[in-house]
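Re: [ENG-882] Designed sequences occasionally contain unexpected residues at chain ends

Forwarding the minimal case from QA. Structure tokens:
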């Protein structure tokens, strides 16, 4: 580009009244001006348009826009962009070295934020009491107040990690419990509810970690208990030691005893009848059977086999009454007392209860021979009558009476 061809390189106005000519516009100068102006739009790839008088302005705008999108190549390093990030405003952020040389200082708009803490300075900052007052060292520290962990959502917890094993302790806002979760984060192994209830997903061991063995106790999920005091599982101990209500079978003697007590066993009839019988150990040996009201002993047996009872004894169709009488259909006269009352007294003589009657004969009468004659009951023979001569007896008639015992 060149200036106008005048001694001082400036334009001068002429004064015709004084005969002074103005600066002459030459062809070389105008050609230079034209090339300079045309070079501006052509340098950004624009074709000259005689109808567009704003091509130089457009060319300059394009240069500025192109320059704004290509800072890094032009600068030769990665710049920091101010603002326009997610959640960022358009505030002016100003970073500069402090005048006193204490470090980098940050100002946002007119708000002085103070010095930046660099990584090389963190160790020194962490040792300051004002930092320790509100920060916890991840390498180990002591909290002097309550630590609250609030995680958005239904669960809030802490993950414990050791050699790749990562169980967690968490709270459930809906269930109101603290849960210990397994390392795979697929199941809760233990629940502690707000009301105090504790539940486990599997067996619970006390005094050790062996399940169903060793010297510790195990509470199984089905309610069974294992422990050395039982010699194994409690269900097995109970089966081998006690009588089951559902399958009552004992393999040894049952002993019911207590000092100063006549041991007894209560047997109850149907619940709707509410009747009972009590089997009680008798003093000096033997057995008492006590009534339902537990106020009388209807039957008892001594240690040597003697028996007593307070009412009649029934054996088949016979009854032994409390007064000693025996009553029954097969007892003579219906009872022993009646039979005794109808017996002959000691020393009693037999008396006739009828007159003498004569029955048929044995022998020969008028050539009719009878070889045998029997008296019917209850007649007995009391005498004989004969037909005889001096030389023989030809016939004998039996004579009889009915007797009574008194």
């Amino acid at each position: 580009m060149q200036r106008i061809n005048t001694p001082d390189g400036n334009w001068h106005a002429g004064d015709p009244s004084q005969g002074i000519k103005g600066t002459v516009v030459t062809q070389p100068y105008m050609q230079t001006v034209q090339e300079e102006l045309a070079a501006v739009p052509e340098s950004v790839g624009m074709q000259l348009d005689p109808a567009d008088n704003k091509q130089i302005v457009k060319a300059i705008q394009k240069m500025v826009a192109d320059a704004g999108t290509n800072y890094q190549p032009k600068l030769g390093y990665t710049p920091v962009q101010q603002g326009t990030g997610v959640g960022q405003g358009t505030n002016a952020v100003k970073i500069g070295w402090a005048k006193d040389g204490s470090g980098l200082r940050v100002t946002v708009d007119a708000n002085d934020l103070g010095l930046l803490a660099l990584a090389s300075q963190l160790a020194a900052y962490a040792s300051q009491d004002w930092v320790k007052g509100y920060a916890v060292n991840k390498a180990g520290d002591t909290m002097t107040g309550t630590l609250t962990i609030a995680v958005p959502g239904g669960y809030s917890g802490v993950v414990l990690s050791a050699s790749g094993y990562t169980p967690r302790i968490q709270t459930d806002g809906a269930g109101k419990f603290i849960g210990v979760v397994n390392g795979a984060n697929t199941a809760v192994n233990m629940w502690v509810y707000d009301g105090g209830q504790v539940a486990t997903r599997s067996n619970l061991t006390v005094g050790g970690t062996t399940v169903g063995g060793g010297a510790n106790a195990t509470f199984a999920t089905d309610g069974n208990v294992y422990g050395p005091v039982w010699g194994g599982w409690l269900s097995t101990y109970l089966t081998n030691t006690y009588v089951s209500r559902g399958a009552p079978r004992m393999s040894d003697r049952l002993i019911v005893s207590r000092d100063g007590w006549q041991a007894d066993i209560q047997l109850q009839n149907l619940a709707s009848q509410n009747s009972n019988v009590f089997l009680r150990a008798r003093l000096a040996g033997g057995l008492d059977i006590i009534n339902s009201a537990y106020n009388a002993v209807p039957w008892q047996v001594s240690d040597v086999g003697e028996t007593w009872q307070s009412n009649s004894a029934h054996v088949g169709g016979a009854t032994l009454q409390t007064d000693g009488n025996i009553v029954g259909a097969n007892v003579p006269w219906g009872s022993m007392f009646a039979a005794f009352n109808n017996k002959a007294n000691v020393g009693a003589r037999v008396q006739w209860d009828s007159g003498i009657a004569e029955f048929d004969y044995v022998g020969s009468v008028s050539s009719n021979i009878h070889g045998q004659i029997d008296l019917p009951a209850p007649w007995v023979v009391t005498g004989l009558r004969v037909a005889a001569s001096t030389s023989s007896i030809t016939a004998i008639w039996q004579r009889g009476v009915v007797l009574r015992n008194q």
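QA comment: On inspection the terminal residues look reasonable. Residues 16-75 form one domain. Proposing we downgrade this to a documentation issue.
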